[in-house]
Amino acid sequence: MLLRAFIFLAIVVFGLLAPATIYSYASSDSCGLIFIPAIDERSGRGVAIETEICLVPGEGDIYLAGVGRVGNDTVVSLLVAFVMSQLISGVPLKDRDIVIRFINKDIRTVEGPSAGALITFALTNLASEGYIPQRFSGTGGINVDGSVENVGGIANKIEALIDKGVRKIFIPASFYVTSRQELDSIVSKYRSSLGEDIDIIPVTSIDQLFNRSINILELTINPIPSEAVNRYAREVFNSYERRALEKLRELNKTIVELLDIPEYMGLRQQYEASQILYRLYLEVPREYRYSYTRVNLLYLSTYLLGNIYNQMRYAEMDLEELKRTLDSVIEGINSSLPRYIEPIRTLPDELTIENYGLYILYIERIFDLINIRDNLIALRSNIDEATLLQISNQVSRAEARMGSLDFWMELIDLSLRNIPAVDSSINRDNIERITSFLGIRSGEIEQQAKRLFSEIYGEGFNISILEPGIMDLLKLYTVYQNLESYSLALKFSTIDTIYRYSLVTNSTEPFEKFIHELEYMKVNYILDSMNIGRSLLGQIYIFAALSLDLLSKSRYLLGSDSIFVSSIVSTSATASALALTLFTIIENIDTPGGLDVSLEDRGFRLRETIDIFADIYSSILNMVLTISLGINIVALALIARARTSYKI
Questions:
Q1: Cβ pair 499, 555 in contact under 8 A
Q2: How far apart are CA 473 and CA 347, in angstroms?
Q3: What's the rounded mean pLDDT across residues 278-300?
Q4: Across 413-439, average pLDDT
Q5: Quick one: which of 194, 123, 193, 182 has its CA closest to 158?
Q6: Rounded to two decimals, what is the model's pTM?
Q7: Which of 418, 560, 562, 567 could bridge 232 with an S-S bond, Cβ 3.0-4.6 Å?
């Protein structure tokens, strides 16, 4: 009897101390397996990581098991996947947790956004159908406007997926357009060896995988009367246009007279680029006459001509005169900053979504001017021929930026007076959730506040004097910053890939196919939708869409200065990132809360539901019965052996 008690105690202690992974699934869970393609950084080869994704009862948190660390761009792609899957499926996720378990045990780090579109696809299917289609996978970054963007190593990833049995693979359409020969070679190779077809699907938007159209810009638009918008927009845009055109005429007259001088002939290409942008301004369709499209084209033209003029002017100056000129520019910025910051010191009690968007973009431009000022201060201490071009560029940016800030000040003032106020108190719980998920610390927000308001209050000011609404606005701005930088990198990768390929082939055909046939950024839909055109967000996106449309049709634009392509990228990223920021925080879409990353395969978070307690109780009962049966069998065997051994 003593021997039996000892054996029982030993088994129980061993069971309690031994490490174990127990995954308990409730009847309400939805799980599925996918292969996520990646690149092994050590070997450079493509790998397909077997991954289990589950939706389980919870509070909207995301758990990653079997990985040690994730990069910032991966975190943002998880946020976008979380939101996009709800928009497409129509199923809220506030009462679900997402568990992503990497079955391979040696994954220390996951970086990059390339699994974003696939995770969006998987979550959408789990939420709406309860399963993930098998033998289907793909690669591509998911952008904040739903676009599927270009990523690296696509050919290697395709082969890794095929080796795992995947036969239907979606890829970014940018790779499909620019690498058809490589794709055809891969498909032919595997068709001959496997005896079955590989279906490669080019995708420009995530909703193309579901035959459902989602446009996030539409979801952020207030029902603003068109007359009110037209009235204040026309007034502000006309005012800016008058100032910009007067400046352009002055600059153009001076520059044209000097371009034939041999030492300035190298600036002709920049001058031609400015003229192209000005011609585009003149060609803007009548329905977009009072729009951000025309304003931005004038802004770019003014910046380019100003840069040319400053290069000519500074080349004639000696060192001391140049320093005095920089001192004057820096002093001009310093004296202007308090005036630009003044509208943010006190916010109205009630703001529309449009107002929040205006304030966020206005703050972004103030910080841009502060950065320019700091760059000029640094350059002033190290002036030589090598830094002359940088100085000219920064001064030109400062002059153009201050002109645009005057425009934005007027826009905010007139919008507050013309757009009907509504009760749009922001959801502070959502703000805290999304800032926590993105890893934004309170110190980062306070640093933004100090950097902005020290221009008025001095370096030692206490941020506690700021209204709660101002701090909320700065939190929104910081969220927007994270989304915008993520979106910018993805947009650049895609648009620049197509642009460079068009330069190499000396043809607009790749752009035309990508924009109009494959519908990247839904350009045709955006341009046809006057409802979107009535909002500021829509107008900013229209600039990018209209510019892409022009770029896809105009061969002479292919050789223009890259500032045009850069502006397409930045404005599309700006509009879509701002739309998602406002949509997720103000429009009550569910946002993820916590993000838990663990190299240990620890299993699911304990869920306080009757089903789980019932499952745990049943499991414990079965375990006890099994252990009891095992103990009796072992004890009887030991007793029998003892009797045999000690035969008298």
A1: no
A2: 9
A3: 84
A4: 78
A5: 182
A6: 0.86
A7: 418
